[in-house]
Predict the structure.
Amino acid sequence: MNISFPMISAVIVTWNAKKYVEECLRSLRDNTDVPIETIVVDNASKDGTNELVKDEFPNIKLIQNEKNLGFAKANNIGISQSHGKYICLVNSDVNVFPGCLRKLIEFMEANPKVGLLGPQMLGPQHDIRRSSSRLPTIWNTFCRALALEKLFPGSRFFGAQLMSDFQHDRTMEVEVLNGWFWVVRREAMEQVGYLDERFFIYGEDIDWCHRFRDAGWRLVFYAEASSLHYGGASSSAAPTRFYIEMQRANLQYWKKHHGYGSCFCYCCAIFLHQFIRAIAYSLAYLSRANSCANYQFKARRSLATLGWMLGMNKTELF
């Protein structure tokens, strides 16, 4: 197969996730019904990921960074060396089911106004997981802080940013596609630009989707194609640290696209979110200490986030 001009360029960023990488790369290799080139960009892994790729997948292009450059920058490096009409950004802990890429490309070919496309996400038990959201607003951030999406399940008004009113069981145009698995039209990307490298990890997906929408491109969740996502391949070693990094990235997004007043309101909503959960998880743990260690972890995570927020200076906020 000639991959000088492949239909798809698959870019996978890796960082100490060897146990998932092999499965991911094998699954891409099994999608034989569409021309594909695969590019692995490794952010200085120490777990043998590079050796695995070299030994088991010698036909895959491997780019080895000398240090962890972050998710957005590493993806941009891979994109810059790709040739496909479509660019497929896949997390290293994804198993791409046979036929998935063909279905996605067929949809993109039939819908030239779609700039970003995402398949249905399945968990390890093959349960449907959330893989899209709405752009954050002050309203939906407060709805989430107050858990109104839990109190009013299925409500579009209270569905909050995480779209609790959408079951991800049908194809639909959405505002944000989570960055676990994207198919990107190169023509659209050339207009919108690469991922914003100021986002080290997290937040770059919301920002990119925002920019694609501003440029007039459609974003579609495509339920007819699915793949498995394990989740947390790189963040599992330090979940609290990565959770705080997610909050930092969300604030960074907010600062980029909104004014000072909105940033202040957003921080108030996030502080309320973490304050409520720190109390709720602590009470749940104390009342059921023998069976709910997870509550203890979540309470500590929220307390750590509150500590980070209280320690922020004006530069971080504005």
